[in-house]
Amino acid sequence: MGEAYVEHDSAKVLIAEIEAGGPDDEFYDAKVKVLSEMIEHHVEEEEKRSEGMFAQARAAGLDMDALGEAMASRKTELMAEYKATGLPTPETPTLDNTSLGPTA
Ligand SMILES: [Fe+2]
Predict the structure, then answer these.
(1) Alpha-carbon torsion (67, 72, 75, 76), positive or negative
(2) Cα(69) to centroid of ligand 1, in Å?
(3) Ligand 1 centre from 93 Cα, in Å?
(4) Residues 60, 64, 68, 69: is their CA dihedral positive or negative?
(5) What is the pLDDT of residues 76-94, one digit of tens each?
């Protein structure tokens, strides 16, 4: 579980950097590639048949249709926020004491 939190925070940092730097950034392509590989790995973990978070949610008796609808509606909200105001400063609680964190 800790791994997933660090992956979330690392993705937020990379996304913010990619957004801020743009294609002229020396490491733009590398950052996009690393982000893409990281997300792919992360989703694979979340979607594992028995131990992934969705399998666990199903096993715990959650209404998966309702969960799907809630997630889709939250995504719509977040996309609207992004269009209106851009990305918020990433909150990265697992990275705050490293050179990647906002306190660096
Ligand atoms: Fe995740």
Answers:
(1) negative
(2) 17
(3) 15
(4) negative
(5) 999 999 999 998 888 999 9
Distance 89 CA to ligand 1 centre (A): 18
The residue extents of the domains of the chain are 2-85
11 alpha carbon – ligand 1 mean position (Å)? 10
What's the pTM value of the predicted model, to 2 decimals?
0.79
CA distance 22 to 41: 24
Q: Please spell the DSSP secondary structure of 11-59, one letter per residue.
A: HHHHHHHHHHH-TTSTTHHHHHHHHHHHHHHHHHHHT-TTTSHHHHHHH
